[in-house]
Design goal:
alpha/beta; 6-stranded antiparallel sheet; 42% helix
Amino acid sequence: MVKRPAYFNLIGCKGRPLFSRSVSLLYKHLFMYLQSLHLLNFNNYADQKAEFGPGVNCLAGPNGSGKTNLLDALYFLALTKSAFSKTDPQSMKHSEPFFSVKGTFIQDNEPLTVQCSMKAGEKKQLQLNRIPYTRFSDHIGRFPVVLVTPDDTALIREGGEERRRFFDGVLSQINHSYLENLLRYNNILQQRNSILRSYAESRRIDLTLLDTYDERISLHGDFLHNARAEFAEVFTPLFNNYYRQIAEDKETMHMVYQSQVSAMPMRELLKQARQTDLLAGRSSAGIHRDDFIFNMGSHALKKFGSQGQQKCFVLALKLAQYDAMVSAGLSRPVLLLDDVFDKLDDARIQALLSLLRSGKFGQVFITDARPERSMSLLKDDAGTRFFFVENGEITAAE
C-alpha cells in the first residue's frame, strides 16, 4: 500500500494552521515536473509516448487534434479522474476495451512513476512505482496540478455548486483531512436525504436515527466550514494580487465566502431546518449550500463583467490556487493552460507572460490552436519546448 506524504499530517484546521510556515519552509525546495508520458487508448490517443521539459511546454495544433486530451491525461495522473469526462469509461478510446495513462515525474530529483488504468467492466487501478493504492484519496495532492480552461468562466456564470467544487478541489489537494471530511459529509448527506425522502413518501420516520445522522454530519460540516472560512481569508489577497497584475489595476474585484453555518453551528442549523427538511424530503441547510460571491466593484461579475474581465478573474483564481498549494508545502504544481491566450487582449497576454517568466512557476503546459501566435510569443524564452499535436500524435518541434 502506498503511504501518503508525511506533510499531510501537518496541515489542519482551527488551531492547526492550513498554511504552516514551518511546512512551507520544509518543502519549498521540492521541484516537480512530468518527464515522460505514455498514453494507451486514452481519448483520441492510441499509443503515444512523449518527453517534456521542466519549463514551458507549448502544444500547438488545430482544434480537435488532442491538445486538451493531453492536459487531461496529466490531470488524470494527479487527481485520478478526468477534468472533462463525467465517468471514467468516457476517457476510453472508442471501441477499445481499456485505457492506460502512465507518467514519470521527477520530484526532488527522484523519479516516480504513476499509472492509472482501467478495463471495461472492471474497477480503475492506480499504482505508484508499481505499488497499488488501496485508497485513491491517499494519492490526492502527491502530484499537484492547476488546470486553466476556457470553460472555467462557468465558475462565474453557473450556480454555487461550480464554485464549491472548485474550492473543494483546491482544499482537497492541500489538506488530506479536508478531503476525508468532505467524502464523509457527502456520504452522510446522501443517507440523510434518503431518510427524509422516505418520510415525505410514507409519513413515517425514525427520529432517533435522524438525530444520529445530524450529529455525525454536523461534526464534518463544522470542520469543512471552518476550513473554507480560514482558506478564504488566506486565498483572497493572493487572488487580488494576481488580478491586479493581469488587469493592470483597471477594475476592483471582490470575493466573499457565504455560508449558513457562519451564523450558527451546523447542529443548531439542522435543528431549525428540520420541519422544512421533513416536508421537502431533502436537506435544505448545511455547508452543501455554501457559495463564493464574485463581484466587480459593487456589481455582480456574472452580469456586468466582459468576457475578458471574466477570463482574467478565473485566471487570477487559478494562479492564486497555485500559490496556495505552494504555501501549504506541496511541490510546485504543474500548471496547465488550455487556450489561455484566447479572449485576452495584447496587454493582458503580456502581463500573463511576464508572470510566467518571473521564475516562480515550475513546469507549464500551454495549448494553442494558432502555432504562429505561440511561436511568436514564446520563441525567445529559454527552456521553452514546442510540440505539434495532430490526429492524436505528438511531435517535438526542432
